[in-house]
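User: I'm writing a tutorial on reading structure tokens. Could you give me a worked example: one chain, its sequence, then its tokens, then a sentence or two explaining what the tokens reveal?
Assistant: Sure. Here is the example chain.
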Amino acid sequence: MPARRKKTSDTPPAPKNTALTQSAATPGLKASGVAVSEQAAFEEIVGLIEQSRLQAVKAVNTNLIDLYWNVGEYISYKIQSDGWGKGTVQALSVFVQKMQPGIRGFSPQNIWRMRQFFETYRDEPILSPLLRELPWSSNLHILSRSKRPEEREFYLRMASQNHWQVREVARQMDAALFERSVLHPPKLSTVLRELHPQAAEFFKDIYSLEFLGLPAEHSEADLHGALLQNLGRFITEMGRDFCFIGSEHPIQVGAQDFALDLLFFHRGLNCLVAIELKVREFRPEDLGKLNFYLEALDRDHRKAHEGPAIGLLLCATKDEEVVEYALSRSLSPAMIAEYETLLPDKALLRAKLHEFYQLCAPYDDADKSSRSKS
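And here are its predicted structure tokens:
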């Protein structure tokens, strides 16, 4: 009688993870099979590769913008000297497509845009570096939708500084950022201006949060939750130097616990930024609570190399006169802004901006006249 075989399980044994086993068995070896001592050096080489790729992409974009500029200059010259018109440009487009099969960007419409691009900026050499930093699609948005030279320069600088993609350029123009920046400069306390002289460059008076999709009636919890769910887009709206630290950040003073709505760090200003949310109109007493949080951050959380913390009250609405009174005696680096859940009426803002420029014009003319007499 044959010997009975030992009973085994029907389930085959799970395969061993050799990499993990080797890593655990071999001191100084990571799961990737790279020795700990070599990890930093390898990561540095990967960083060089990524940096080179980025430079290559920038070089391609710069060469493309230079090409379109040169073509636009040539077309402009030929229109003036030889009377080139639509028919000639149409023939040029067909010829380019025939000689360079598969080439993109040389439709008759785009060739005319190259000419407009050159003629718009040829007398503004100071903007040349900005033009080369942005992709052609972003340049076209700014070129075609801006009504004033200062508006074009504003969006060129903002897109370059914040590394906006073309969709964000379009969004900020839809939100009338230029008009709002001129008509509604940020409301900063005197102390904030003294401690952080550049703060006005990094904050806004009105933040467009239409991407949250909030209904007209919403709670503070709704707003808070929506901001966290759309944190990347919120940071884009705030500015690229804002770094998120935490939500409902715990603050302990004495035997009491408090929670700060949102805490950020601003790389440009080198300081913490505390944000308190209000889904109603600003009230003066709101500033007292924010000041308390700023004092706690400076005493217990700020590092030695950082500047004083900044406070931002983000409210649904605010009365400008109440804000002015509240900030005039404030001893904290705070500011008060409002948020909008719908895109503004751009036509109305443009009308107000036109009115603003009309009011400023007599003063500008008088100033020029006085300088010419002196």
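What the tokens reveal: Residues 36-82 form the longest helix (47 residues). The chain has a mean pLDDT of 87.
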